[in-house]
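PROTOCOL LOG
Step 1. Enter all chains and additional molecules of the complex.
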Amino acid sequence: MRWAYLGLPIVSIAVATLLAGCGQGKSTAANEATIRIGSVAPLTGPQSHIGKDNDNGARLAVDEINAQGLKLAGKPVKLELVSEDDAADPKTAATVAQKLVDDGAKAVIGHLNSGTTIPASRIYHDNGIPQISPSATAIAYTAQGYNTAYRVMANDAQQGRALGQYAVTKLGAKKIAVIDDRTAYGQGLADEFEKAVKAAGASITAREYTSDKATDFTAILTSIKGKTPDLVFFGGMDPQGGPMAQQMKRLGLRAQLLGGDGLQNINFLKLAGVDAEGVIASSPGLPLAAMPGGPAFKQKFEARFGPIQVYAPYAYDAVNVLAAAMKRADSAEPAKVLAELAKTDQSGVTGPLRFDAKGDIAGGSVTLYRVKNGAWVVLETVK
Amino acid sequence: MRSVPDWLRRHPGLAFGLLAVLLAVLPFIVSIGLGRGWVRVLDFALLYAILALGLNIVVGYAGLLDLGYIAFYALGAYLFAWLSSPQFGLHLPFWLVLPSGALLAGGFGVLLGAPTLRLRGDYLAIVTLGFGEIVRIFMNNLDAPVNITNGPQGINLIDPISIGGFSLGARHTILGVHVFPPTFYYYLFLFFTLFTILVAMRLQDSRIGRAWAAIREDEVAAAAMGIDTRNIKLLAFAMGASFGGLAGGLFAAFQGFISPESFNLMESVMILCMIVLGGMGNIPGVILGAVLLTVLPEALRYLGAWQRAALGHVVVDPNDLRMLLFGLAMVAMMLYRPAGLLPSRQRRREFRAEDGAAEQEAASLYDAKA
Amino acid sequence: MDIFVQQLINGLVLGSIYALVALGYTMVYGILELINFAHGEVTMVGAMSALAVIGALLGAYPQAPALLVLPAGVLAAIMVCMALGYVIERVAYRPLRRAPRLAPLITAIGVSIVLQNAAMLIWGRSYISFPAILPHGSHPILGAVITDLQIVIVTLSVLIMLGLTLLVERTRLGRAMRATAQSREVAELMGVNVNTVISATFIIGSALAAIAGVMVSAYYGLGHYYMGFMLGLKAFSAAVLGGIGNLAGAMLGGLLLGVIEALGAGYIGDLTGGFLGSNYQDVFAFMVLILVLVFRPSGLLGERVAQRA
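Step 2. Run joint prediction.
Step 3. Record the structure below.
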C-alpha cells in the first residue's frame, strides 16, 4: 500500500503549518494599536543590495513616525514594518503579497521591480490595500486601472522622454548608440529614450543589448565604437554601468555615457572608479540637497545603514506619503486611506509629491547629474 | 511501508477515503489556520508536483537528464497568454488553450529530442540546458521587430480560467462562505495533479514504461531486444514536455501575468532537485519532493517569528538566513537519504544490495562511460 | 579589420578566464564523473576573500605597493579556496560516492546556495569595487588596443595551464590522478591512495578557481556574492564543449567560448541585417555548442566513447 505514502506530503504541510502557526500565534496577538505596513523587495539574490536599501529607507521613515508619535482617531498608534523577500521573482511576489494581506497589512511599500510589482498589484487591488512602489517604473503598472496602485518614482516614459530630449537638445548628440540590459526596467527606459531621440531629430546608430548579470561589454562596445556615435545611452543598473564605463575608456570609445536612475548612485562611482568622470545620469524628482529635509535624511540614513544605494529616499517618501494620508483620513482603514492618498500634495525628500489620476507622480521633473571629481554634481532639472 | 499503520494497510479503501477527505478540506484548514497566503503556496506545490511528475517521465523513467525542462513550462504559459489576453486580443476558452499548450510543448519536446538522441548523460544535460536558455532568451527578446512576447515587460491581464461562466479568478460566496481564487485554483490544480498521477502510473506499468526502464538501464541491450529506442526516447521527451506545457498554461491563468524571468535556469534545477530529493522514478517520492521544496522556503519566512517566540527577540534577520538554511537542508536531506526520501522499490533494492550492485547502478544511470 | 582584431582580443581574454574555471570542472569530472556545480561559487569566494584582504591591507597601509598587496590577496584567496574545496568534497561528495549519480548533483546545488548566502552574510549585499592599484597602460596592436591587465591575464592563464599539464603528465601525483580517472579500483589495487588523490584534485581545482576569481574581479573591477553563478555556468559549458574530463579540451573550450561570445555579440547584428542583435549572443553560443555536440557527442577533444556493451 505504498500509495498511503501520498499522505506524507500532507503530513509535511501539516508540520509546516504547525511551525508557521506557532510563530504566527505570537505575532497576531500583537497590540491592537499596531498598524502593519508591508515592505517588499528582493532581499536575496543578485539585486538584494538594492532591495535592502529600499527596506532600510522605509524602516527609517517608520521609526521616525513612531518616535514622533502617530495618533489616529484620538488614539496613539504604532506602525510596524513587515519586511518580506520576493527574490525578484513574480511567483514569490504574489505569494508574499497574499501573505501580507493575510497578516493584516494595511498598506504595502513595494515592490522593487516592475516584474514583481505588477502581479502583486492584482492581489493588493482585490483586497483594497494601497500599494506604493518606490521604484517600479514600467508604464503597465499604473495602466491597469487599479485605484490601489501608486508610485513615487517617475515612470519609464517620463524619464526616458526627459533623457532623450536632453541628449539631443542640450548635449547636441546627433548619432546615438543605445544599450539596454533586457530587464523590464532597462528595456522600458531605453525604448522610451529611443522614441524621444528620434522625435528630437537625432539618429540611433546602434542598438545593443546585454543582461543584468553580465560584466563583459567589450564585444558590444567594440561594435559600437565602429559606428562612432557621440553618445552612448545605457538603460540598466550600476553593477553593469560601472564596468561599462571602465571598458569604454579602455577601448578608447570617447562618446558621452548617459544613464538613468540606475546609474545615478554612489555604487556606480565606486565601481567605475576614475572612469566615472564626466558620466551623466538622471534621477527623478529634485536633488536631495535642494529639498527641505533632504540633507537631514541623508545624514540620518547614512549614520544608521551606510551609504544610500539607489532608491532608499523614494521608499522613505513612500512611507511618509502613506502616513500623511492616514493622518488626513484619521484612520488606517485602507478604503479611507486610499481616498486621501489620491489627494496627496506634499514635499518629500525626492521632490514635490502629487499623484495624477493613474497613480503616477504628477509633474514628473527629472534632475540630471554629472560626475565631477568623483561626485555627482547637479546639472539641471528638466520637466 | 512499515511506517503505515496496520489498520490502514488492512483497509486500503479507508485510506483512500481519508486521503480524499483530507485533500478536499485542506485549503479550508490551511486558510483558517495559516491564512490564504498558504493556500497559494499549496497551489504552487500542486503545480510543481505536475511539473516534477512530468520531468520524472524524462529523467526518472527514461533516464534522460534534462536541465531545460522549464522551457516547456514557458511555452505552455506563453501560448496561454497569447490565446487569452489583450496581447493579440484573443480570448479563447481554456479547454481549447490548455490542450494546445500541452501539444505545443510536446512538439517542442520532440524538436529538442530529435537532434540529441545520440547524446548521453552530462552532454545531454548541457544541451537541454542550452535549449532552456534559448527559449527564455527568445521570449525575452521577441518584442521587436514584431511584438510577440512583449519582451521583458511580460504579458499582463491574462484571463483567469472560467468554467461555464464561473470565473475562478474572482471571489464567490458559496453557502454564505467567501471563497477566494486560490481555493478554486487549488481544486483545479488538484484535478490536474491527479490526472497526471494517473497517466504517470499507467505509463510506468505499460509496455512503454518497461521500454523506458530498459533504455535507462542499458540502451544497447534495449535496442537488441527490439525496442525502437529512437521513438521511445522521443516519446519520453514529448510526454514529459506536454505536462510541462499544461502546467505552464495553468500558471499563466493563475498568475494573470507572465514574464521571462519566471522561466530561468534555476527553476529547471529546482524541479530536478524535487525529483532527486523525493526519490527518482517513484511517484509519491516525486510529489513529496515537490511539496517539500515549495513549502520549505515559505515556512522559513517565519524564522523571525520563531526567534521571537523562543528567545523573546529577533537575533538574526530572517531574510539573511532563510536561503542559507534552505541550502543546508537540501544537503542534509541528500546526505541522510542518498537515494531520495522515498526511493522507488527497484532503486531501494539496488541501493541496499551489496556495494557492487550499487556501483553498477550508479554507473549505468546517465553515463556515457561504462 | 581593427574591429575584428579587437573582438578577437576581447574574446581571448574572456576565454582564458573561462578556461581556468573550466579546468576545475573538468579535473573533478575526469576523476569522479561528477559535475561540481559549486565550483562557480568557489571562484566567487576566491574573488571576495582576495578583495577583503586587499581592502584590509590598503586600509592599514594606504601607501603599500600593488606588487605586495596583490600577491597577498591572491595567496589568501588560494588558501581559502583550497580549504573550501577540500571541505566541500569531504562533506558533500565523499559520503555520496556510492550513491546514485544524481545525488551529489543535488548536494552540489545545495552547497552553492549555502556558499552564496554565507558570502552575502559575510561580505554584505553590496557590490565591492576592486581598488585602483592596477597598471592602466594600454598598447596599440594591429589597429586595436590591448591593456597591461589583459596581457597579464592571458599570460598567467597560459602559464598556469602549462604548469597543470606538466603536473598531470610528469609527476607522481599526476600519474595517480590519471590512474584514478581510468579506474578507481585498479588504481587502489596499485597502491594509489584514492581519497588523497581526489582531495588533491579538488584542492588544485579550487586554487585555479581562486586565481580565476581574482582575475575576474580585477578585470571587471568588482566583486559580488552572486558573481560565481554565471561564470560557473559558462565555464561548465566550455568544459563540455571541449570534451569534459579532458584538460586540453577545457582550455580549448574556454578560449573558443570566449571568442564565440565576442564575435557573436559583435557580428550577429550585421550578419542578420539587424534582424537579430547582440541580445541573441547567448543563443548563438548555445547553438554552436549544440551543433558541436550533435556532430561530436563527446565534445571537441573528448574521447570517442563506445556505446556500452
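Step 4. Note key features.
Confidence is low (pLDDT under 50) at residues 353-370 of chain B.
Residues 36-364 of chain B form a domain with the ABC transporter involved in vitamin B12 uptake, BtuC fold (CATH 1.10.3470).
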